[in-house]
Amino acid sequence: LLAPLTRAVRTYSSTAGVELVPRIASEFGLRVTVGAWIDKDKNRNEREMRSVIELAKRHSNINGIIVGNETIFRGEQKVSDLIQLIQRVKRSTSNIPVTTGEIWHVWIEHPELVSAVDFIAAHILPYWEGFSDKQSVDQAVLIYDKLRRAYPGKRIVIAEFGWPSAG
Predict the structure, then answer these.
(1) What order do you get walking across the sheet with 156-161 strand by strand?
(2) Residue 130 phi/psi, 5° resolution?
(3) For residue 88, what pLDDT band results from cuts at 50, 70 and 90?
(4) Taking each helix axis from N to C terminus, what angle separates 42-58 and 79-92, rounded to the nearest 10 degrees?
(5) Considering 6, 20, 62, 70, which has the largest number of Cβ atoms within 10 A of its Cβ?
(6) What residues does 109 pair with on adjacent strands?
(7) Three state DSSP letters for the chain
(8) Is the pLDDT of residue 120 over 50?
């Protein structure tokens, strides 16, 4: 179970030092999914976008790009604007799957977002939805199945799942 976790690294920002991760990971034979942090700050977004595109062009160990993390859920961008950013990254990089990370219900509510990405990066957070620790795994499976039924044939990755140590 731990082997896949030791072979990949995921980052949600491509600046502020995180841009060093792909090179360092490569030294250890690790593949990396890099992210561009997207919010309301247009200048920061532009830096993040340029950085993630450049990283993807320079490092062959990048196996995915995440454009934004819960950007729609947080109300930082409109879906149509986020789709434009995703499309920009897809046009600027070749053969690297591109997505965004969102809480599972955002994917259900926005099929147009699903159409724009190469795979669904779903966040399943049962604690924050009021489920007990004993219900959390079953709830995650139910949500995964719901996504699978809604989007048959679309690759689904549970990008975030966890339980706070002091909620």
Answers:
(1) 8-10, 31-36, 62-69, 98-103, 120-124, 156-161
(2) 85, 20
(3) very high
(4) 30
(5) 62
(6) none
(7) CHHHHHCEEECCCCCCCHHHHHHHHHHCCCEEEEEECCCCCHHHHHHHHHHHHHHHHHCCCEEEEEEEECCCCCCCCCHHHHHHHHHHHHHHCCCCCEEEEEEHHHHHHCHHHHHHCCCEEEEECHHHHCCCCCCHHHHHHHHHHHHHHHCCCCCEEEEEECCCCCC
(8) yes
Q: What is the pTM of this model?
A: 0.86
| Cα angle 121, 116, 125; round to 5 | 25
For position 6, what pLDDT does the model report? 37
Residue 9 is encoded by which pair of tokens? 């690294």
Among the ranges given (7-11, 104-108, 130-134, 150-154), the one the predictor scored with the smallest mean pLDDT: 7-11
What are residue 67's DSSP bridge partners? 36
